[in-house]
Structures are given as structure tokens and as C-alpha cells.
Amino acid sequence: MVRKVMWIVLIVLVALVGVGLYTRLAPSDVARWHNMPEGLAAGETAAQAVRVIEAQDATFARLDRIILATPRTEVLAGSIEEGMRTYITRSALFGFPDYTTVARKGEQITLFGRLRFGKYDMGVNARRLDGWLAQL
Prior knowledge:
This protein has helices at 2-25, 30-33, 59-68, 124-135, and strands at 43-44, 48-54, 73-79, 84-90, 97-105, 108-115. By secondary structure, it is of the alpha+beta class.
């Protein structure tokens, strides 16, 4: 009986390590994640959050500095000059990636945060966007 339990624990541990490695090492498809769908409205669903703010000339650059100061966050694609940039922020334990695209259109900046794996982000993307905007 003890041997059976040990095998089950070992299998679970190997599965967890496998999930952790996959989520950290799976490539990010720029064409899929570096985009801003039309018609996004501020709000949130189970898997994403959208915020829209008024923008002045320096707003995007300030927001970019705040985002890049966030632990485990890096740029996937884009630039401030281009008017759109996508970031990956990974969770601490398993490295689950969340993608946030920030785009300026006229006098507005839209922040679009969404998860890659799963169907429910437990409000993580909304809290992250709200935290960045509070610092702004």
C-alpha cells in the first residue's frame, strides 16, 4: 500500500514538473498575441480584462516604464513609437503567461490583458491593469 501511494505521489510530481516546464518554455506566437481586437470595451470576463484611459503625449512611455518594472514581465513585440506593445507577465510558481497589449489610438490608450492557459484568471489580469493605472 505504501509503495502504491509513493508511485502516485511520484506521478503527480512528474506531471506538475511537466506542466511547469511546458508553461515556461512554450513559444509565444507574436501573430496571435500581439494584436488589439476592434470594439473592445472596458470591463472584464473570466479570462480577460480591458481598460481604456485618456492619453497625453507622455502617457504611453510612463505606462511602459511601470509595466516593465513589474516582476516577471518582458516585452513580446511592438514599441511605443509603433503605438502598440505586447507584454508577457508570468506567474511566480508555474510561469503561466498572461499577455497584455497596450495600444494608443488618438487620445486613448487601451490595455487588453488575457490569459493563455485555462479559462479563468481569478481576476489577476484586472488587478494587474488596475495596479498599473493606479501607479500612473
